Amino acid sequence: MVYRANRIATALALSLILGACGGSSPSGESGDGGSDVLLPPARIVLAGTIGVEANTRVDADTADGLVLGELPLTEPQLLPASFILAGYVSFRDESRGTNSPFDDFPKDPEDQFRVPFEPGERLSLRTFSEMAGGPLVTLALRRLDGTELESQTTDPINKMFSASVSLPATEEAGDYLVVVSADDFDPPPVRYVLSKTAGAQSLALNLDWPRHAFVPGRAVVAMADYAGTPMSASNQIAGNVIRALDHQHWLVTMPASRMSRQSANEQNTLDWIDTLRQQPGVVSATPDYIVSAQSPMNEPLYPKQWHYDLINLPAAWQLVPGGGAGVKVAVLDTGLFRDGLGWHPDIAANVVTLIPAGADFVSAEFDNDVPPGRDGDPRDPGNAAGNNVFHGTHVAGTVVANATNQLGGTGVAFGAELLPVRVLGEGGIGSSTDLIDAIRWVGSGTPVKADIINLSLGGLPEIPALQNAIDEVVANGVIVVAAAGNQASSSPAYPAAAEGVFSVSAVDAGGSLAGYSNFGPWIDLAAPGGDVRRDANLDGLADLVISSSASLGPDGFEPDYTGLQGTSMAAPHVAGVFALMKSLKPDLNTGTLVSWLAGGQLTTPVPGGRSGALGYGTIDSAKAVLAAIDNPSVTILSASPAAISLSSETRLSQTVELQVLGDQTNNLVINPTIASPAWLDVTLSAVRPFSITVTLNEQALEEDVPVRTSLEVNYTTDSTRVLHIPVVAELVTDENARNAGRHFVLLVYTEPNEQGQLEAAAQVSMTAVNGTYQFGFRLNDGTQGASFADVPPGDYYLVAGSDLDNDGIICQSGEACAEYPVTGMREVITVDENTDLKDIRMATGYFRPTISTATPDVLPRPGFTGYKLKMPHSHGVAAPKKIGVER
Amino acid sequence: MVTLLTGYLLAAGCASSDVIETGPDELLARQVIQSAHCGLSGPGLAYVQTPERLQQLLDLPAQNIAVQQLRQVDLEKEHLLFITLGEKPTGGYSVSLVSANAEGTGSPLRLAVAARSPAPGTMTTQVITSACVVVAVPAHDWPEIRVSGIRDKDLVLAP
Predict the structure, then answer these.
(1) What distance in Å separates the CA atoms of residue A563 and residue A566, rounded to the nearest whole number?
(2) Given A461, A484, A564, which is nearest B121 (Cβ)?
(3) Which of A364, A386, B36, B44 is most buried, with most CB under 10 Å away?
(4) Number of C-beta neighbours around residue A595 at 10 A
(5) Measured between beta carbons, which residues in chain A are less than 8 angstroms from residue B116?
(6) Model confidence pLDDT, tens digit, residues A213-259
(7) What are the boundaries of each domain within chain A?
(8) Which residues of B touch A532 (CB under 8 A)?
(9) How high is the ipTM of this complex?
(10) A214-289 architecture in CATH?
(11) CA angle A784-A788-A794, nearest 5°?
């Protein structure tokens, strides 16, 4: 490493002579700044490399380069099909007003990128500004000739800092222009992150999901509503209609011309369905799945209901084959969709046989049904203008949607009964007095009208009368679950924060707290709420919670399904799991649940037992259900972790523990044959403790294209059962092209300065070479002429990151950041004459660690905004000319 | 649904002798649909002149809008303008058309919309919404369309 120090010094000296017109160079020139003399031959005490996260790129004209004289790009910057890029735009140039020449921000009103797109792929933008509000930023997708296809603008005043565009299905695959432009604002600069994943939103990928049995030669086809009734007659492609399943779906048979030897098999049926999907007017075509008794995973939409795998529901359902039968759940909400044929077809069978009189509590001033005011009809009237998503129907579907009707998806407690109660009227708004009366109506009498109350509503202050009503019903044995709220705030929100109510925050498909979810010490547990901006499970679809709904068709509202996000979607997952438990343990009450929750028996635990984000953790249905079984007679296998993610970048192999849950006295035999695709090798350890080791076969993978499958583990205990383990994988090949921008590597004091900032004691800067940054620090032994790269003996954190907006702070949101040893879990390094750390490895990127089950040791950092670079004249060291390369 | 509000014009200081006085058969704008779940996460305007462009806007996740009503609009005669409030944390948000006017041939089309939001402390659904109104306007070559009522400043679009 000594030779490198000499090169650093030479490069630095040259840049000073040339007037610092530098910027990045292919050689990855490195400078420590702060001295115009060659580095003294002191010993390097600390050195290493910083790798860059997969697919990371950086805007080629950011503020830290522009202030040094680099010119904004005039040609679009080329990007790969999958990338995450950080950038900088500013409507004009200006000083930050500190009388310092070192923190100016330059003009760069627009960045253009040339990006390969497939139809349906989506690109997302997230912006960050120093000021509340901040400038509007527009994200536009254009053809190469400049024709605009789609654009979206952020709304910082209303706290919307994101935008996204997708390539319409009508466009050809190829290169397109992506333009990020900033509006005028004072002060104007803004940092941003752009991201895109190749293959996202490609429906074809979904064919690789679990191999459900289906009837050869038949399909369930949905037609676009404008298409009228083209399915009423047979044709060469669609075959014959057997019957209409509802307003939009038809059961059809394959035409004989597509059969081989006059018979339909699985393959030619799937080929035919694939052809059907490409026909104009066909919205969807799915196989006619064979339904086995109470098998929720056979519902057509189940493969899109990622939120159930996340909470280990398939394992739980094996323990509760009745799906919560005998338990009543009251959903206090906007009511339930009903048309001339009855309640929503995916929920109808679960609605209580006789709805007690008075189930509509919406007072006249909030009501939108006829006649306005309280009555006995809990149907959701919708809204003639279409300003309605049938929120209560969506929530109810998550709790109880039917599992055996070949329609839509399934509910968590598909065997439970639903009591729909209306407390929210026009636009999803209601009054606290209506809610209080409804809670008492459900749970104060004897017998109670429902065992569990779900409240996917909020926004109320603390109201003593509401607390009294909740106290009454909880004392009467009713369990109350509520949505924590979507304000991304720690302020207690009611009714979730009320005593006796289980408060549920929302996680995305990666198990991390959703960006919108409330948090704080009043959160009890977490459940999937979705996040439209993420596709954490790589299924090509946004991570929304899929459930029943209705939409406006030619003849009025029709039953439908839709994806939504919010803590409203998280709460019913918990209410459903509690219903599964209650069916096994009829005396289950709030007190028991609180005690089990605190004992870690209901959730995937979090470090320390409880966190502000996830409470006691994300609900684990299998654990929760098992807790409710006094003497389990069934035995099941559960995978830990429940899903596997492999890549050439992270890990090529993973061992999954197969836990035996339930009756431990039953013999359990695992079928050693586990089918897997060519890119995945599977090894089973079939003796206790059971485990499966999966290994990526890199030769069988296409580069940079995510793949997925689901392993089926067949086993026999008291019965023959199947365990499904989803696997996603990717062969990453962009190591050398990765670039996260000029990096500053700092040793920062562990105590903040007078401004409360963690400031650098020593720093070096460099650009990436072959996707890697290399750094080294010398010991400052007190001799004269010490440079910025010389570190005095002491205790420090070792951190690195970019300063794209040239404000002298690295690691702000939208800038790259790395910490030693692991980002999010920095540790103190003591530097003295004996220090000899020469092989430090770190990883940098734009993602920030989240507190989740996968990263249990990460702690919150309230108020942390980044690390302060070592500034001119600070700590008595000679000044560089500008912030940038010379520092 | 659409009114020409003289009061609005006076209040906005836009009244002039050039104001086009459209009759009931020549509406400058009509509200086609409203939705609380348009799937467009930022506030702004999207102008639709072709079925392809319409399909793009009907292909978004987290969307629930009355597709049928939009497809019934004859894009040869009327263009569609999506006026979006952007993503909001709860239910209770909506946007609707209030008025439309133009001050003369070749002048900007000015639309006023009313955005509604739940009062603080109101009980609402805890679902992320993205309210919008879709307005049909005559298929003219509007030099500019200005929409007031969404933000402090007008939203401006040059079709």
Answers:
(1) 10
(2) A461
(3) B36
(4) 10
(5) 427
(6) 566 777 777 776 544 444 443 454 567 776 665 556 677 888 777 76
(7) 2-53+738-876, 63-196, 214-289, 296-627, 635-730
(8) 41, 61-62, 128
(9) 0.76
(10) 2-Layer Sandwich (3.30)
(11) 85
